[in-house]
Amino acid sequence: xxxxxxxxxxxxxxxxxxxxxxxxxxxxxxxxxxxxxxxxxxxxxxxxxxxxxxxxxxxxxxxxxxxxxxxxxxxxxxxxxxxxxxxxxxxxxxxxxxxxxxxxxxxxxxxxxxxxxxxxxxxxxxxxxxxxxxxxxxxxxxxxxxxxxxxxxxxxxxxxxxxxxxxxxxxxxxxxxxxxxxxxxxxxxxxxxxxxxxxxxxxxxxxxxxxxxxxxxxxxxxxxxxxxxxxxxxxxxxxxxxxxxxxxxxxxxxxxxxxxxxxxxxxxxxxxxxxxxxxxxxxxxxxx
Length: 288
Prior knowledge:
Blueprint: E1 2-3, H1 10-26, E2 33-34, H2 41-48, E3 58-60, H3 63-70, H4 78-81, E4 82-90, E5 94-98, H5 106-115, E6 120-124, H6 130-142, E7 146-150, H7 154-162, E8 168-171, H8 173-182, E9 185-190, E10 216-222, H9 227-241, H10 244-251, E11 256-257, H11 262-283
Parallel strand pairs: 1-2, 6-7, 6-8
Antiparallel strand pairs: 3-10, 4-10, 4-11, 5-8, 5-9
Helix pairs in contact: 1-8, 1-9, 3-11
């Protein structure tokens, strides 16, 4: 299972947890292979060129459909190079500041952004990442400007915020839970709905009703993979998702495991591609 982002990122945490259960059901190990770089294009393109036998798969998130709008040559085509196998779940990203920041809540954050003499700075795992676009969408919804500071992966962005190198960041709870629990970071708002593990943190849409970003996480195989192999993989991951232990573990990091079918996932792809293409255009984000 290729993970096209750095180890320790939200996608990586989710992939390892689900793969562990699915591996037992398939009765063979699922080896995790982190291949970060180019916003996820390196690992994703690697799987697009792999032998379509079901033995090389990729676990991806929104960057799977975002990158073709950002890069002139991402190295793959979502529609023609991949078959959606299973949507593992939907997640959340959390707007955070340093633990000792004078900004205590979402309302004071927006007030600070509007009154600042220079745009507040924010860290992301990279240019064109979901975190970057989610923050650009927040700026549009709130009518403010932010200064983007890209880093090389989610852990680097989290550490930069904790060290005070930037004013804020939008980060995946899956990769930052420890920092919130220790007080190094303070959560101000969720880009999606409230989550069970952080019930006191409001949804941003409670203040900005038109704003919501809830990333999905899914498994894909190369186009041409035999249908019976796709079905076998789908069933293994779906059975893993039904296990209460995994459900509880994922809820603690803000992930709601999906009940959608393979057809549902395929239909989602047909709407996500044009949606995020438009988001990228409005944000002005470019890579090449």
